[in-house]
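hiii so my PI (J.) wants the whole complex modelled not just the main chain, which honestly fair. so below is everything: two entries, each one labled with what it is. i double checked the lines twice but i was tired so who knows lol
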Amino acid sequence: MTIPKAAQAFPRSEYLRRLSAVKSEMERREIEVLVVTVPANITYLSGYTSKSGYVPQALIVSLKDEEPTFITRRMDAPAALHQMFIDRNNVIGYPEALIANPERDGYDAIIDFISDKGLGRKGIGLEAKLLPSLTVEKFRSRVAGARILDCTNAITWIRGEKSDLEIAMMREAAAISDAGMLKAKDVIRPGVREADASAEIIGALVRGANGKPGTDAGSFFLCATPRTSTCHIRWTEDVFQQGSQINLEFTGVRHGYTSPLMRTLSIGKPSDHIRRLHEGEVAGLEAALAAAKTGTTCSDVAAAFNTTLKKHGFEKESRCGYAVGIDWTEPTASLKEGDTTILKPNMTFHLMLGNWIGEDVGYVISETFRVTDAGGEPFTRLPRELFEI
Amino acid sequence: MTIPKAAQAFPRSEYLRRLSAVKSEMERREIEVLVVTVPANITYLSGYTSKSGYVPQALIVSLKDEEPTFITRRMDAPAALHQMFIDRNNVIGYPEALIANPERDGYDAIIDFISDKGLGRKGIGLEAKLLPSLTVEKFRSRVAGARILDCTNAITWIRGEKSDLEIAMMREAAAISDAGMLKAKDVIRPGVREADASAEIIGALVRGANGKPGTDAGSFFLCATPRTSTCHIRWTEDVFQQGSQINLEFTGVRHGYTSPLMRTLSIGKPSDHIRRLHEGEVAGLEAALAAAKTGTTCSDVAAAFNTTLKKHGFEKESRCGYAVGIDWTEPTASLKEGDTTILKPNMTFHLMLGNWIGEDVGYVISETFRVTDAGGEPFTRLPRELFEI
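here's the output for the full assembly
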């Protein structure tokens, strides 16, 4: 019996549109085959979200073929048949003998496929900067004579401009992020363990919102007193106290798409210092959104934020955001002064205003937004409050 | 104000013991500095579990110094000061200017540190096979003249033999895994969405067991009818039906340490085929555990499983397990025929007997165990049942 095709997150026409953009870029770079190994890029071009990327696998995009071919470990092929929009003949499982084998691995199966099909004579694109060095060496030595071109982030730049269908998906993710933050407001109380509150919030992110469940548990950070100067701790075994401050960062996930959100909560009144920092950051957030119009630059948005925050007597060392989409960060454009990327409609950013100062101060607020002609349009519906419990 | 030190998961003496083993290996390989970049290895040598590994960072182990030095993004330094057993002077934050900078990144700060301290003249070890190719090239070009040695998995092999303190930690993780599976038995019912059941199970894994919370949400897979032939799908939006089969794989986590567990559940009577497969797998599991004595090989354990399963009329294509510990898989020893790794006391394995056949059959059972002179001692206390709901 064959495994049924899952309900697809996007229509076939949407995937073909994305592939068409990738193929144009391949032509521009004069390559005829692109070996896609970054999981978020595989999701983008096929709908695949199964977590098999810890072993070698690749989506092979060829100028000769309308659909790409996916090569993965044989035990993961049924998930690809189920989730990917492509024809079942375009999913190839490589044998188990290539797992935990020091001589040959899944990349050999990928190289064999390219060689056997006579692909790549004009040039082979790799996401080389992100591949293990051993793998790049293997391509260089096994595909002798072929021109190997580094295409790291080529697809990621294309992903940067979302379609309306993708924006709708990110709004679904944002509604889940909001539900998670509202749950946090409900369950964070003095005497509650950080872990128990986290269990409730993560549960809310998985259950989802508006009848649409989360499709994954994204990254999750809860950094509470006395750890508010940290930013990437999951949670601890401690119990919240009267006076505790809690910095939260997480996202809902819909078919890979994220919409990260940060808010600070305070059990009791926050200090004057944190209150003033909050006011400066919210003013900066609003200035940044107002600046984030089609045609301006990432640098302009960052300058709007930084100037406003400075007027309130504060500074933020780290960049104030980055491109966001599938699997959270897109390693392309940054909202920082000096980044001259020009904003286009439906580019999406995590305006990440976490501000960690020294070892005892940290305050977080963030919103995920899309670029429009009128400025940045945030996906969250939450108020820009420092939530007092 | 300085951030306080967290309650430590292990005493200082335990970390020094681990570092001593690593330094002996460095002497054997004739290197004087080891650049540790694999997050699980950083956790092993320092107690750090904060999730900052998506930007460059490294724990520098030098033969000259008792404690290692950690170099990370400045905003992540407070988490390192909080979690790591090392002195605060041995945590160095590099500036934000190295983030999203195409010219220089955090590895430049790491290379600068090694050069400035005059380290590595004898040789520098890198976990090179896992580093991006760009990074390895950077070390080669910037530390001209230095002998750069690939030390991929050098620490992972040392991690393979656990101390009694680590075994105790894995037992805590196993108790959480058990709690998660018992929760699954409670919440999986006809008419329940896969996502809602997953929310409850993941919540249980975060809440923990015996007063010890989970310290992270580990990887989680729920592959239910009609997807039982898949193995790495999180969950879907579907609703369980009478007759659904559910294959579960997840782990509790304690301070990085995992103890993965798999069981199959059936709503109503399973088919005769699945029932017979279950009986064969359980017999194989018991044969493998009996074989897993100090002094035998991984291959012997796999042969015991495979022979027994074959007597029951089944075969399993994939290896029947792998070394396990911090962050789940240790990419070293595999329980497969031909792997001649000799079992030593307190080596720990995930005896992973997931068996996916074609596109419509999948059955899973697994236990995490430690090697003893008397055979494999499993950490789970769950019965070896195909749970019928």
